[in-house]
Amino acid sequence: MYIIMVYDVEVDRVTKILKIGRKYLNWVQNSVLEGELTKAQFERLKSEINRTMNKEKDSIIFYTFRTSNYFKKETMGTTKNEPTQFL
Question: pTM of this prediction?
Answer without folding.
Answer: 0.82
